[in-house]
């Protein structure tokens, strides 16, 4: 009994905190959120899900029909594809140059992804570059795309550049 009394007195002095239950009194709240519309009855919900399931089935069947009709018209034979690629590879005279350019392109993409990741990790720099890009896009639209005469000028500039690249000029 002597051991039970100090234990009982220690708990007798502690207060128990009980959470307050909400009262039935209605309070008005000021909120910027719009009111939630009332819920639908279960019958209208079931009807709407049935309708959406039927429309989904009909659209899937239309997609399947289109896919099957397109498969009939454009079937790709893997053997034919590989033979075409082999013929094109055999027709190339300087294969080492093609491999060098391909490897260089892969290395360039890898390095550019590292560079973009490094720039992206600098605080504020991505946002500044985003603003520069938006400004340049706005200028380009104003300069080349907004008016009919400037669109014609852009088209002629592109044609001249194509001819320079192709070497026909």
Q: Could you describe the 3D structure shown?
A:
This protein has 169 residues and is mostly helical. It is built from 6 helices and no strands. The mean pLDDT is 76. The chain has helices spanning 4-12, 42-73, 78-91, 95-121, 125-145, 148-166. The longest helix is centred in the middle third of the chain and has 32 residues, at 42-73. It is extended and about 85 Å long.
Write the layout of secondary structure elements.
Layout: H1 4-12, H2 42-73, H3 78-91, H4 95-121, H5 125-145, H6 148-166
Give structural attributes.
single chain, 169 residues, 0% strand, extended
The geometry reads as extended
N-to-C CA distance: 111 Å
- Main sheet properties: none
How many E-type strands? 0
**SSE topology string:** HHHHHH
Count the helices. How many?
6
Structural class by helix and strand composition: mainly alpha
Spans with pLDDT under 50 lasting ≥5 residues?
A: none
Mean pLDDT: 76
Percent of residues in beta strands? under 5%
- What is the helix content? over 70%
The rounded Rg comes to: 36 Å
